[in-house]
Amino acid sequence: MARKQVPVVCYHQIRDWKPTDSKVSKDYIIPVASFKQHLKMLADSGYHTILPDQLYNYLTKGTALPSKPIMLTFDDTDLDQWEVARPEMKKYGFKGVFFIMTVSLGKKHYMSKEQVKQLSDEGNVIGCHTWNHSNFKKFAGKDWEIQLDKPTKLLEQITGKSVNYFAYPFGLWNAENLPQLHKRGFKIAFQLAEKRDPQDPLMTIRRILDSGYWTTKTFSNSIRHSF
Question: What is the value of pTM for the model shown?
Answer without folding.
Answer: 0.97
